[in-house]
Amino acid sequence: MTIQMILALGILILMIVLIMTDxxxxxxxxxxxxxxxxxxxxxxxxxxxxxxxxxxxxMIAGFMVVMAALQKTSLIDKVQSSMISLVDNGGYKSYxxxxxxxxxxxxxxxxxxxxxxxxxxxxxSTIPYNKKLPTSKLMMPLGFATNHPLIPINVALQFxxxxxxxxxxxxxxxxxxxxxxxxxxxxxxxxxxxxxxxxRLMPDRPIGDVSGESKEINKAENEKMPAWKEYCxxxxxxxSVIGMMLMNKMGNVAYVIPGLAAAFVLFIGGxxxxxxxxxxxxxxxxxxxxxxxxxxxxxNSGFTAIVGTNVASALGTNINPFVIILxxxxxxxxxxxxxxxxxxSVFIFAPIAIAACMSxxxxxxxxxxxxxxxxxxxxxxxxxxxxxIIFGMGKYxxxxxxxxxxxxxxxxxxxxxxxAVIIFPM
Length: 426
Description:
Layout: H1 3-21, H2 28-39, H3 45-48, H4 55-70, H5 75-89, H6 92-109, H7 114-125, H8 139-145, H9 156-168, H10 177-198, H11 212-216, H12 227-245, H13 247-250, H14 253-268, H15 273-280, H16 283-301, H17 303-315, H18 321-339, H19 342-359, H20 365-374, H21 385-393, H22 398-423
Helix pairs in contact: 1-2, 1-16, 2-16, 4-9, 4-12, 4-14, 4-15, 5-6, 6-10, 7-8, 7-21, 8-21, 9-16, 9-20, 10-22, 12-14, 17-19, 18-19, 18-20, 18-22, 19-20, 20-22
């Protein structure tokens, strides 16, 4: 390894450690890494901070604003009302319908949206015990369902990350957002099928009273919008999604459509300027923009290529491409599960998986898609975020938790990798 490789690797490791240990606020470590790249002479300021003018980052920044406005509409309230009416009916049919309703709600707010899963889990925790539909059988399926949109149209964040890692690796091919959504659909269907089967495996008991802190977790109250404003925000959301899905046909214009939609939301008063500014400069945007400079430095130093070549050599030339994708997806999701750092885990393994595929002469798109999405689909340990809240609010034993989450984990990752190689042939 050259000095440049060692320096680039050291900066990457420092960034990841800071992300995973929460020593700095989320989004700050990549900015520090960009500064260190310049100090170490690995990048010019323009190269280190190139991510801030990356078209994918610009696109996602605008879309974050539109999503924030959508959260203030009555659509989320309607999802909540549908859940309550289904629980009152009880039975297996209501269980299935509840999962479908939550997955449809996830289609609007996006997979893994913090506000959405906190809302759903808080609602479930307040439902009285009913022998026909025990809350102990609802907490895990409904909690994890918030991460699996049944109609995966709102996948802009993960799509943007996938575009970023592919571009950073030097891959010049195109990626269709519609095809990307289809890969997510494979995983969502697999999750739904597992929920249908696992109903009888989950415990039947009250989950007990939640803590005072949990009771207070709920959706922030917003002033009721006039109907015309809600319709305008929903239309802005729809236009943004359609524009991104037609990216391959529209070219560069597609990257700025969410930004224009965000400007429209500001103009009609759906959000004030502070809200627009805060969402457009959200920590996840800083994270996306910052890591691009680090990934570029690793690529330019030759580190990513040499690691990819070594991994490819270790795997052998006759290995099935599906196995390569599966191995890297398992590594990424497991790392994210134990560290709580989805983005950090993705940016460790995605460049290596892409480089390994490219060194074998394979199209790396399937690997990039599967590895990126897998970073948000571990969850078999109640360590961080949503899995921890599900485990705590459901008052599960670890054995009860694993009965549902371990099979769910392997089923989802397998379906994800299968969908990736089918939709994006290698």
